[in-house]
Amino acid sequence: MNKLDEMIGRALTEEDRELLARHGEPGYVAQAFGMFRGPMAWALWVAYAAGAVAFVMGAYAFWQMVTTTDVVAAVKWGVGALLLFQMTTLTKSFMGSHMQANRMLRELKRLELQVALLRAEKRA
């Protein structure tokens, strides 16, 4: 894949390189916070809040499991903690898939930009 990227880079003009550098891929933190804007922001806020609540409740259930002396109660708290931590993982994977989808959309927009630039050059 790197060889293909190098070939594409050599084919670009200086103006194209400057434009692509300006609209390059943001860092991980910028991508993570960028998910909370746009038309799907409400769903990601709900998932984030549900994951945070599930983590706090899971930590509480784990603490109750560790500190209880009754075996049956410890098993109940442990199963609850396990389910809540799985919910936390589920919400994180949901948000991760949206981050990946946003990366793909950003790449498609960059391709659209390149095609538009090529069309503009042909017309001129």
From TrEMBL:
<protein>
    <submittedName>
        <fullName>DUF6768 family protein</fullName>
    </submittedName>
</protein>
<keyword id="KW-1133">Transmembrane helix</keyword>
<dbReference type="Pfam" id="PF20556">
    <property type="entry name" value="DUF6768"/>
</dbReference>
<feature type="transmembrane region" description="Helical">
    <location>
        <begin position="75"/>
        <end position="95"/>
    </location>
</feature>
<dbReference type="InterPro" id="IPR046659">
    <property type="entry name" value="DUF6768"/>
</dbReference>
<keyword id="KW-0812">Transmembrane</keyword>
<feature type="transmembrane region" description="Helical">
    <location>
        <begin position="42"/>
        <end position="63"/>
    </location>
</feature>
<keyword id="KW-0472">Membrane</keyword>
